[in-house]
Design brief:
mainly alpha, MetI-like fold, 2 domains, 12 helices
């Protein structure tokens, strides 16, 4: 008799837990333990999602465009900062505290300033997403670069390799694991950052849609948006895992997961 793989077992437990929560949620509303207008049941949320599907997809397209552009720029910024601080120790001492400082200011506090400075178009939203996504990339890559095997580095130096060759053959491949782990975090941050920036002003997007339905006290539509945002974040993280398997075929821990 074949044993179930750990991955299948863990997924079954996860699905079972989600189903149990949904059933308890539905029963608590159906039995009147919680007022339906305050906490709509899963059936009501599903109905609102189906009814508002065209509007949700149109607003999701805008949010994804903002998140995608901000994430790409955040990756580029994080990669450049990590390479610079790894190459120059003085740059690390000068800029790393500032980079950490940028993450101590809440995104909700920065967003109104960006809207005042850059208006209600896409620019302030992309800037906020870059601020929230570049930090995990920077820290992950920098940690990977500095964890390079010194024996391997010395071996390449003895063979006449330069800094660029050491970077390409030792440091960059060794930091790929940390990069993709950071990218999963940044991908989810990108969507959340886009929604937060849309709350404070804009002409479209899931954040703008949430603000409208909140003012109308349509909590079923509000929950439908929340579930859609969660689903988008999970899909992006799953896409990063697939990309990691393609880019890191030597990582047996990933390929046999």
């Amino acid at each position: 008799m074949k044993r179930k793989s750990p991955s299948i077992t863990s997924k079954l437990w996860s699905v079972s837990a989600i189903l149990a929560i949904l059933i308890l949620w539905q029963l608590s509303v159906s039995l009147g333990l919680v007022e339906g207008f305050m906490l709509p049941s899963p059936v009501q949320v599903a109905g609102a999602f189906i009814k508002e599907f065209p509007a949700l997809m149109e607003n999701a397209r805008i949010t994804l465009a903002e998140a995608g552009m901000g994430l790409v720029l955040g990756i580029a910024t994080g990669f450049g900062a990590a390479v610079l601080m790894d190459r120059f120790d003085k740059a690390f001492k000068a800029f790393y505290p500032i980079i950490v400082l940028t993450q101590t200011v809440p995104a909700v506090a920065i967003a109104p300033l960006l809207v005042l400075w850059f208006g209600y178009e896409m620019t302030p939203k992309v800037i906020l997403i870059v601020i929230t996504t570049f930090f995990p990339i920077t820290v992950g890559l920098l940690t990977g670069f500095r964890a390079a095997d010194p024996d391997a580095v010395n071996l390449l130096k003895a063979m006449g390799a330069g800094r660029f060759q050491i970077f390409c053959y030792i440091k960059l491949p060794g930091a790929m694991g940390q990069f993709f782990s950071s990218l999963k975090i940044s991908a989810s941050y990108a969507v959340v950052g886009a929604v937060i920036s849309e709350w404070l002003g804009g002409f479209g997007g899931l954040g703008v849609y949430m603000t409208r339905v909140k003012k109308a006290f349509s909590f079923d539509k509000m929950f439908a948006v929340i579930f859609l945002i969660s689903a988008i974040s999970l899909i992006l993280m799953w896409a990063v895992e697939l990309l990691q398997k393609k880019c890191m075929p030597w990582d047996t821990g990933q390929t046999h997961k």
